[in-house]
């Protein structure tokens, strides 16, 4: 039986280094590169975010590049601000902003920063680092009042420890987001004089123990300032309208403090003498009123329409038997309610002449005759 022997033959091959004459490529890298950068949101276009340095161990040419959102917001530039991403190692370049940032729109960005060298046998080889760009806030937003317009109502003669609450928001962060409230300086000397506002909460109150009077004033415009704590501080203003609701606390008022009228003696019943007119003293309510004669006419020579306030002759008056004038007291009362106001009506009784013409009428005719005679005399 034949025997087989296995012979191991070891062949020593030259290393890749001996064949190519090159050593294995070492990847380029960034020297001292942090994993994040910070930039103020008000940084101008062209501002330098950071300086970066790429090193290739073999000293070859390297090329830097940005990926992801990074290439949309930054450029890699040289010391002259010109976009230039390629050069011999060590290569120092700068990250430069290419557009404005707004922290309120976006506060951070993640992107990749790569560097490549040129290795002749296997093409480009690269190193990539994941990076973050954080946008720092600056106080660039004024407080904004929300849930406007501010309009409220308050009953007159009613104390109130809370009239309304205003609220403002600030989109900034840190101390810049905190808002303090106050009345404007102009308002403190005018409409706001009767009110106070809490600095932190924005709650508006009436000053202690004060009430509002509709008849004095029925509307207040309170100008309110919201100011943040940023440096420099920013502010905005709004107006709180406070409407005063009328309450039934004022008696009726007559259009005139007194009335005068004349009526012929022996005037027939229902002859109109004069009309009085009153209105509700509470301007915002305007209740109807009823009229009544409450004094100066014990014998009821006159009567009054309770709805219109018109006074009429109620019985025939003989001037020679009765007095030649009356002083009536007319009262107007709210309906419903019992608030009332008075006025005085002076009525003169005109005496009739022999032919039934009142003396004032006779005098008027006589004056006309004299006037005509004078005109005739001057024309001669």
From TrEMBL:
It holds the Pfam family Cadherin. It is found in: Membrane. Keywords: Calcium, Membrane, Repeat, Transmembrane, Transmembrane helix. SMART domains: CA. InterPro entries: Cadherin-like_dom, Cadherin-like_sf, Cadherin_CS. One of its GO terms (molecular function) is calcium ion binding. This is Protocadherin Fat 4-like.
